[in-house]
Amino acid sequence: MKILMYIHSATGHTMQVAQLLEEKYKKQGHKVEIKSIVALNDREENPDNIKLIQCPPLEEADIYIFAAPVRGFQLSPVMRAYLAWLPSLKDRQIYCFVTQFFPFKSMGGTNALKQFVGILESKKAQMKGHIDINWSVSKKRQRLIHEILDEFII
């Protein structure tokens, strides 16, 4: 099975989870590729003003995974700009996750994940799973990373 991951990682935490998923899926015999989304103005708050300098086109795959950090209690503006740029995701099987540092999901993760899923569903994606990973407490972080590895069953 071909799995493509489209990742925006501001600090490396989101990419770290993507690499764990990549390792897991490759061990299972899947073909996996991580595609980074990068903006020239990564700290810009308004997605309309984001200038994407690494904007990977959507390729054919069996499964897609999108991931980004929470920023300002919302989904990363870079990911929002990228998703706005993408064409329809009709009939594509999609998983997504966000990473965040606040100790409680209600401090941004829940809202960002809701935004993420809403945008993907508005593009007609078939949502297969989603999760919020907290980076503030190492024990909880490890448990959540293992949850995503278990939840995103391919």
Structural commentary:
The protein contains 4 helices and 8 strands, in the order βαβββββαβαβα. Helix content is 34%, strand content 29%. By secondary structure, it is of the alpha/beta class. The radius of gyration is 14 Å and the shape is globular. The mean pLDDT is 88. The protein has helices spanning 13-27, 77-85, 109-122, 138-151; strands at residues 2-7, 31-36, 38-39, 52-54, 63-71, 74-75, 93-100, 126-134. The chain starts with a strand and ends with a helix. The strands form 2 sheets. Strands 1, 2, 5, 6, 7 and 8 form a 6-stranded mixed β-sheet that branches. Strands 3-4 form a two-stranded antiparallel sheet. Strand 5 and strand 6 form a beta hairpin.
Keywords:
154 residues; 6-stranded mixed beta sheet; two-stranded antiparallel sheet; 8 strands; globular
Structural topology:
Elements lengths: L1 E6 L5 H15 L3 E6 L1 E2 L12 E3 L8 E9 L2 E2 L1 H9 L7 E8 L8 H14 L3 E9 L3 H14 L3
Main pleated-sheet profile: 6 strands, mixed
In N-to-C order, the SSE pattern is: EHEEEEEHEHEH
Average the pLDDT over all residues and give the rounded result. Answer: 88
Radius of gyration: 14 Å
Q: What percent of the residues sit in helical stretches (DSSP H or I)?
A: 25-40%
- The helix/strand class is alpha/beta
Low-confidence stretches: none
Oligomeric state: single chain
Give the strand content: 25-35%
Cα end-to-end separation:
9 Å
Number of strands: 8
Number of helices: 4
Query: Overall 3D geometry?
Result: globular
Describe the structure concisely.
By secondary structure, this protein is an alpha/beta fold.
